[in-house]
Amino acid sequence: MLSSLFGAVAIALGILQPTDTTIAVRSGTRLEVTNIEGEVVVRAWSRDEVRVVASRSDVDVRSSGSVLRVRPEHGHGSGRRSVDLRVHVPAWMAVHISGPATDATVLGANADVTIETVRGEILVRDVAGRVRLRSVQGDIRVENARGRVEIRAATGDIAVRDASGDIAVENVEGDIDLARIDARSVGAATVNGDISYTGSILEDGRYRLATHNGDISIAIPETADATISVATHAGEFHSDFPIRLHRAGAGGRYDFVIGSGRARVELESFNGEIRLRRPRAPVGSGRSAATDHASLRQDPQRKRRP
Questions:
Q1: Domain-by-domain residue ranges, the chain?
Q2: How far is it, in rounded angstroms, from Cα 263 to Cα 226?
Q3: Where would you tag: which of 26, 61, 168, 171 has the fewest CB atoms within 10 A of its CB?
Q4: What is the pTM of this model?
Q5: Distance of CA 42 to CAs 14, 15, 51, 93, 210, Å?
């Protein structure tokens, strides 16, 4: 009776009550969370249940066929718009989160993860499945992922670390950091920002890093077998180890081969430095970085001279 009385008083005073709901789900059910404003955190657990904990009571949790939808109500009389959601899901459940002003986190999922937000930070960690992330404004991080990773952003830095699976990343205004990557296909492009890559260069792999206004740093393992194409129009090219450049076309484009040349690596910066380094060399190392190797640090413009 006291709890009912308190609830009635809370409603009368406009005090927002929290939500705590648990629903049993069958294998194959997908989760869709839509939140206009606030934070969404999804964690995997071992139960075949979905638990939704929210900072407000007016949250609609509804099952429709193979989809479980979670959506806070935002009517005219609902008070403040921001809602924070904490959701526990089975590890096998695919997750889709969307919202115009939403910070989103997904932890431990063994299924596909899709996040779409206009303004907000995104973190995906310890997942095994396809990851698709879209953001207009906000930083994006993916850590310890097994599966293909696709990211598209407009403003904000992107970091993918400890990932095994193909990677496709597009950015407009921000850096791209790819670290400890094990992938056969990697594509990373930004308009204004730096790109760094450390990871494997696999036989028959394809790796393309491109920026219009920024630097590129890539770690090339000593055991790599790759044909590398470098293009910089108003920048510089440096290598921490000896190479033999071959003119490949108009402008500042050059090719060279390491080992058997089976992998293909394409590096392009219109206005920035391109640097090849050994895996242990720091990303920001300058001209004095390689002291144990005969090093070529040469502006490609100078290679045009006879």
A1: 16-109, 139-306
A2: 4
A3: 26
A4: 0.84
A5: 28, 26, 10, 11, 33
